[in-house]
Design goal:
Keywords: Signal. By secondary structure, the chain is of the alpha+beta class. It contains 7 helices and 10 strands. The strands form 2 sheets. The protein has an 8-stranded antiparallel barrel. A two-stranded parallel sheet has the order 4-7. A hairpin with a 2-residue loop joins β2 and β3 (109-121).
Length: 278
């Protein structure tokens, strides 16, 4: 009897942990707390410091547009070249020029200095005119010093019709120039003081005009003007390597005619410059 009760007690003790584990397994699992409405309404404010109202954006500069440039001539140091011109004066004499020029940009302006040799010759018409008492105003062969200023009116990158020709920078400019004329041999026999005075005088002296009589073409009445003003237009074509081509048309403006005594009035000059810009 006692032995049977002992066996039942052992079996009860061994079965007790299993019952506890079964009850724990049957217990409902703990549920995570549901998020509160306040937590769901939170927003990401990481970029809050970089946001700008639309009204403020419309009042500030958002960006800048750039223009296409093949050759930035404004940043060049200096340019050198050869220049040739054909003078279309109001007479029957032939005149052409050949010389050297240098140009340098100053902001949006371009300054030029040129020294040329002008050659003048007579034609069949002037030879016949020389047989009459009539004369035409003209200028014998001489040296000329030019100081020009150009201002661009339009510019941009252009491509030529031949496909193999490289793209170039084209600049359309307005030009104004001052010209000084020097006649070799005209001051021969003059005193130093007279030479210094004549170099700055606006017109040739009687002594200079007399000295030039032997070198003038037939039928010419020597124009006494020593200074001249010109104005016109030019097209500067800049290549990417720095080379440039500059055709130009200038017109003489006789604003100084009262002091220079010129008799030529308005006349045209067509020129072409070839050079290299550093």
């Amino acid at each position: 009897m006692i032995r049977s009760l002992f066996v039942l007690l052992v079996l009860f003790v061994l079965s007790l942990p299993r019952a506890v584990l079964a009850e724990e397994a049957q217990a409902p699992e703990a549920q995570a707390p549901e998020p509160s409405p306040a937590d769901s309404e939170k927003t990401d404010d990481t970029l809050e410091g970089f946001r700008t109202p639309l009204d403020a954006l419309t009042e500030r500069e958002i960006g800048a547009a750039s223009k296409s440039v093949r050759f930035d001539w404004r940043k060049s140091t200096i340019g050198f070249g050869l220049i040739g011109s054909e003078l279309l004066e109001r007479n029957n004499f032939g005149s052409t020029r050949l010389g050297l020029m240098a140009r340098k940009p100053f902001g949006s302006f371009v300054g030029e200095v040129a020294i040329t040799r002008a050659f003048t010759w007579g034609t069949d018409s002037t030879e016949k005119l020389a047989l009459t008492p009539y004369r035409q105003h003209g200028r014998p062969s001489r040296f000329e010093l030019d100081i020009n200023v150009g201002y661009p009116l339009a510019e941009g990158v252009v491509t030529a019709l031949p496909g193999f020709f490289p793209a170039t920078e084209l600049v359309f400019s307005a030009n104004a120039g001052f010209r000084y004329l020097f006649y070799p041999g005209a001051m021969g026999g003059m005193k130093f003081q007279d030479v210094a005075t004549s170099l700055l005088a606006p017109r040739l002296s009687d002594h200079e005009l007399a000295q030039l009589e032997s070198s003038r073409p037939g039928g010419m009445q020597i124009d006494p003007a020593r200074y001249g003003l010109l104005a016109g237009l030019s097209v500067d074509v800049y290549f990417g390597s720095g080379g440039f081509l500059s055709p130009r048309a200038m017109m003489a403006v006789p604003l100084l005619g009262v002091v220079t005594g010129t008799g030529l009035g308005f006349w045209w000059e067509l020129s072409l410059a070839l050079g290299w810009t550093l």
